[in-house]
């Protein structure tokens, strides 16, 4: 069975000090953010942004693993953003778009994807025959650790942490 994610505070203190709400809107040289519409081609856009950002930071060795993880996170975010159109928190999906964020915090890179749903990501036992349900298993396998945080504005950010060679 896939284990519960490590708490954000245990894995990377910067997320607690700055908060994802601030990180997702900050304009910092060590951060890239990209708003994404809730549609299937956003997954390709997220992969392209992730790869190009890591290349610019001189961290292309993380590219394959990070692109795989971001594909899973954005796929889940698109799914959550599309259904239903009004969430339990009373917000419409248009109130909080999907946002991809990459944060370089040496010796780590944090990938986070926010979506308007308050529903917690739930790890499942991977079923390698089924065509879905393996996303969080993949995220856990290819990242150092992962987790999620509620956003003050509503919705959540699901994140994965990678350790760089430098």
UniProtKB/TrEMBL annotation:
Domain Histidine kinase/HSP90-like ATPase residues, every copy: 37-159
The keyword Transferase is assigned to this record: yes
Keywords assigned: Kinase, Serine/threonine-protein kinase, Transferase
GO molecular function, one term: protein serine/threonine kinase activity
InterPro entries: Anti-sigma-factor_SerPK, HATPase_C_sf, HATPase_dom
SUPFAM superfamilies registered for this protein in UniProt: ATPase domain of HSP90 chaperone/DNA topoisomerase II/histidine kinase (SSF55874)
Pfam family of the protein (one): HATPase_c_2
Coiled-coil zones: none
Positions of transmembrane segments: none
Record keyword DNA repair present: no
Protein name, entry field: Anti-sigma regulatory factor (Ser/Thr protein kinase)
Organism: Sinosporangium album
Lineage of the species this protein comes from: Bacteria, Bacillati, Actinomycetota, Actinomycetes, Streptosporangiales
